[in-house]
Amino acid sequence: MSSATFLARVVSGVVLINLFIFILAGLSLRQSYRQFQQGAEITTRNLAQALENDLSGTIRAKDVALFAMVDEYQRQRAASGVDGPSLNAYIERLRSHLPQFDALRIADDKGAMVYGTGIPPGANISVADRSHFTRLRADPDAGLVFSPPQMSRVNQKWIIALARRINLPNAAFGSEQSGGAFGGIAIATIELEQFSRTFAALNVGPHGIVTLRDDQLGIVVRHPEPEKIGSVVGQRSAPPPLREMVQAGRKSGTYRALSTVDGVERTFSFRRVADYPFIIIVGLASDDYLAEWRSVAVRLATLVVLFALATLAAAFLIYRNWKRQANSVEALAQQEAKFRTVADFTYDWEYWQGPNREILYMTPSCERVTGYSAAEFAADPGLLLRIIHPDDRPRMDRHLHEIATCEDGALVDFRIVRRDGAIRSITHHCRAVSDRNGEPMGRRVSNRDVTEHKHMEDALRDSEERWKFALEGSDEGVWDWNIQSGEALYSRRWKEMLGYAEEEIANKADEWVNRVHPEDMPSVMANIQDHIAGKTATAVAEFRMQSKDGSWKWILGRGMVAERDAEGKPLRLVGTNADISARKQAEAKLQEKTAALLRSNADLEQFAYSISHDMRQPLRMVTGHLQLLERGLKDMLDQDDKENLAFALDGARRMDAMIVSLLDYSRIGRKTSSKQWMTSRDSFDEALAFLAPAIKESGATISESGEWPRIFASRDELTRLFQNLIGNAVKYHAADQAPRIEVTSTITPQLWRVSVRDHGIGIATQQIDRLFQFFSRLQSRARFDGTGMGLALCRKIAEHHGGRIWVESEGDGQGSTFIFELPLVPADVAAGDSKTEGEQHES
Ligand code: ADP
User: Fold this and answer.
1) What is the CATH number of domain 482-578?
2) Which of 725, 726, 728 to mutate to test the pocket of ligand 1 (most atoms within 8 A of CB)?
3) Cα–Cα distance between 353 and 698 in angstroms, integer?
4) What residues form the membrane-spanning segments (predicted)?
5) Which of 654, 732, 814 to mutate to test the pocket of ligand 1 (most atoms within 8 A of CB)?
6) Contact 724, 754 (CB under 8 A)
7) Which of 358, 502, 566, 768 is packed most tightly, with the most Cβ within 10 A?
């Protein structure tokens, strides 16, 4: 149920209960109101009734006194005349039976007060003008006549007078009805105060009133008086219900009205006084008789309000409790969902077995590992053990036996046979679990599929073994240096290399540092720094290390960073040490030999140069003298002598040419222009310029293609190279064919390659190897002139520039292609000693 629905229900429940209580309280109040109202009506009626009885009694008593007075008066008149004192005494006796303040008097036929109580002696008081006097005088049958309320002329008090006619004695005795001469009136007064007193004795409550009205509804007495007595006397205003009922001739009645005098609401009952012209009205103020009801109503209302508040509070508490409960249920559900998520999505196969090994929960991942679903395991308790590989069952049984009494976690490895028959390796971990009170709740089991891990482990072990074998076989020592901790591990061979036993070298980097030759240390460290900084793929250094016996050994150390932290800082350096002392010795010997060779080579070159140079001098003498001889003996010599002389001269000249070419050869790299950066094309053009006469003469066509690099070379030599190759291509062509030559220059990433192709006489394949040797010629001098030194020179030039030269030919008559390749950046430039080759001049 949603919070809003529950709240709506609680609220409507509270509203309904309160509505019911309100209605109940309302009904009960209404009921009691009615009772109070009825009570008031009954009270007023009863009081009015009582007053009526009282009033009519009072009047009747007065009337009796009046009769007695009239009788006495008439008797005395008829007998011996009125004896004043005796009459007065008689009257006084009568009066004594009446209430204290009432007076009994007799007025004569003129209206003068003559006898009776309370008349001051000598007072001349007349009632001749009073309505009751005039009326009785005029009407012998008037009977008992009431005066309206009036101020007594005897004692100035408000009174009403009751009067009866006195007939003169000639009239029939004792019968005033029979008429007779008017002889005066007998009067009984009732002080209005007396009514007031009677009324005051009634309990009509603080605001109740009692009113006496005459039959014309004029007020006679009202109690309480609003001001002083008589202030409302004679008022004729009356509430409409009273007026209506009186006019309708009703004797009594009850009504509610607002007082015409003080405006207070009251419940009235009126009653006509039987036989007398008076109406008694008793009114109880609503405020008085409802006061109790009101306090009850207020109490009840308070109770109802309190009840409403209490129900509201209860509803609030109920709602709050419900809300709390709902929240805790919700929190519980969330908690449950959380744990379920954790439990249901484990990668490993997890479960919880109860104390009797029954499965209480198993993660769905069991299906991934075993091929069986959690429901299958739950339904079939034997399945767990059945899928264990038969070979591993004894181990598992042992484990189960062991854990029966064991609280702690226990580990065991076994294999299972999956549903599909595949075998998987499992690492099983279980531990006893108990609830909060320490009651055992079975065991919590975690099964991890470690098949891949096992395979990897096996592979790793195999590979480790292979490496170990390879390293031990390679005779190299292995080291592993933890840069952060300064710890280092050295293999047995590493130690052995320096003559140490396994335990003689500690696992510290210092063991290595302290044994490196101090002279070699800076370069080794620089090397390692370069590698760590990422400048080199591996750190490789050759250095000397001191053996246990104090001798020095040359070591080739190779290492690389095997592990870096997240910032790329190296953590471990791993590598090998190889003993290269033997190689170093061999190298040193080789160096010595090379130096000796270089020296002897230089000597030889110098020797050859000197010889050739010096040989030209005698040769020129031979040639010169032979020419002189030829000129001097010109006419004396026969044809044979002349031919012999010419041979001798030719031989001398050829000899000179050969010596010149030898001199040229020996100058290469010694007395030619020094290497410098130049445009290769310039040399090519220069060579063509030198060759222009021969080209022109032979009618050769020379085409050129490709890119020409800038190159670091000796300009003389490069020109000479082109000159020789193109010169040969021009020279060695078939007699009937003009030479056709293609020169192609190509640049590869490292090399500059030039090929000079001709379509000339070609070269027999088996001769190719000889071509570049000294004075080697394939053609007879008769056909092609030459010294056979050109290509040797070319090879020396190519080699002087770090390059090589070779020839390709399909054979005789197939043309040939001479190719040379020079490095674009020669080794001496790369090494930075390009300026070391100084210019040398022929001495
Ligand atoms: P020379 O040209 O002075 O004889 P070289 O050393 O220049 O000496 O050449 C050696 C030999 O190689 C030449 O005698 C010739 O037989 C052969 N030879 C050189 N260039 C060519 C070529 N372009 N075609 C055919 N044979 C050649």
Assistant:
1) 3.30.450.20
2) 728
3) 108
4) 6-27, 297-319
5) 732
6) no
7) 768
Check pocket membership of 787 for ligand 1, CB cut-off 6 A. yes
The residues of the chain that CATH labels 3.30.450.20 are 346-456, 482-578
pLDDT digits 0-9 by tens, 69-121: 999 888 888 888 888 888 889 998 888 888 767 789 999 888 898 888 888 87
For ligand 1, atom 3, which residue shows the shortest CA distance? 786
**Architecture category of domain 587-664 in CATH:** Orthogonal Bundle (1.10)
Task: Please indicate whether residue 815, judged by its CB atom, sits closer than 6 Å to ligand 1.
Answer: no
Ligand 1 contact via 771 beta carbon (within 6 Å): yes
Fold topology of 671-830 = Heat Shock Protein 90 (3.30.565)
Q: CA 703, CA 723: separation in Å to the nearest integer? A: 15
Q: Is the CB of 491 under 6 A from ligand 1?
A: no
Q: What is the pLDDT of residue 680?
A: 94
Does the Cβ of 700 fall within 6 Å of ligand 1?
no
The interaxial angle of helices 3-79 and 192-201, nearest 10 deg, is 140
Parts of the chain belonging to CATH 1.10.287: 587-664
Strand ranges across the sheet with 488-490: 488-490, 477-482, 570-579, 552-564, 539-546
- For domain 346-456, give its CATH number from 3.40.50.300, 3.40.50.1970, 3.30.450.20, 3.40.50.2020: 3.30.450.20
Which pLDDT score, from 0 to 100, does residue 834 have?
Answer: 46
Check: pTM over 0.85? Answer yes or no: no
Tell me the C-alpha to C-alpha distance, in Å, between residue 128 and each of 42, 110, 124, 450. Answer: 44, 6, 12, 146
Three-class DSSP category at 341:
helix
Using the mean position of ligand 1's atoms as its centre, give its distance from the Cα of residue 605 in Å: 24
Please, where in the chain does CATH 3.30.565.10 lie? Answer: 671-830
Contact 109/183 with Cβ under 8 angstroms?
yes
Q: What pLDDT is stored for residue 58 in this prediction?
A: 87
Kindly give the distance from the C-alpha atom of residue 777 to the centroid of ligand 1, in angstroms, as a whole number. 6
Is there a cis peptide before residue 739, judged by omega within 30 degrees of 0?
A: no
